[in-house]
Task: structure prediction
Amino acid sequence: MGPLIPMGFVNPDLNLFFAFVIGLGFGYVLEQAGFSTSRKLAGVFYGYDFVVLRVFFTAAITAALGLLLFSYMGWVDYSMLYINPTFLWSAIVGGVIMGFGFILGGFCPGTSIVAAVIGKIDAMVFVLGMMIGIFFFGEFYNTFEPLYNGSDLGGIFVYDSLGMPRDLFMFLLFVIALAAFIITRKIEDKVNGLKPEPGLFHSSYTAPFAFMLGVALLILLLPESPKAKWYQTDAQTLLNEAAEGKQYIDAEEVTYKIINPADMDLLLVDVRSEDDFARFSLPGAINIPLEKITDRNSKNILKDSKRKVVFYSFASTTADQAWLLARRESIENIFVLKDGLNGLFAKVFYEESDTTSRLEMVQFEKRFRDEAKQAFLTGGASVKSSSKPAPVRTLVDVQPPAAGKGGC
Result:
């Protein structure tokens, strides 16, 4: 399924199912195109039928143009595409052997399977010969290995080998395909003794050719990659929002809403690791580690939330990164707990002293902190069990000394 699995579009557990369905569709298309007939396939080499060449060219340019457009729009990540490495000499020798087999047998490996399934005897013989060749290669692999793995060029692209831009190569490939369609139709008419049609190609081809040519020109004119995917927040807007600092939410507000569930309109998202989350989390929080923020499921949770999303970690750094990643994906109504858990508990468990700071504390703030401290200490906030043994604390009820028995 190519890049659809790592991007989250396809469940990995359904990979084989989709491969099976696609395989059935591929075989059906080959059969309907007549590729199960050896005469039609061999016609490419004898000049009387170029349907195979035109179908293959159409598939190639459609897939290439589609990948480029999807990559530009951010639907496909080009870096996730696997490119078969090129081994020069084995590719040349293998191509020659397959070419001779195509001419003699009238099938390629894929079309031979399709034809054999529908009962073509010649296809069955071709498949048998293919199996014998595979067995022979496997038995003498040590002998063939230097040739098989020789001249390893890696996962190269044709346009890199030619030293030209990718989009220019794609445009030239389309022009070559268009020329091949026209020339092969003229050759077919001449070999089959048919009267050539007026013009370069049949009138029914005009609209498809014009559409594909337009797409090819669009690819040529577009920049190699967009500054941002079509749905993403652009970099300048993101920079301005981060500089304004409006994404931060104070620890007092978060704490107040934790201890007053009726007013709770926040979705607390712990972006720490799963282990840290297991040891302790704020009441009602969910865990989405930083590295999973841009996963498909995570983005759906954040986008679908009817409450304000508040990221938090030990401090603000990791939560800030989560906010940037989420805003880059154009997710709205997201915030960061200012100073993180460290800042929150520094305020909740504030210790009074005889310094002037106590005198400067307003009475309302003092009552609020006392209430929050009591809520966290008596079960308003849940501490998750850890695998490590916790120290045992014994509370001793100390009685005041009786009157008249000393003391100060």
In short: Residues 166-191 form the longest helix (26 residues).
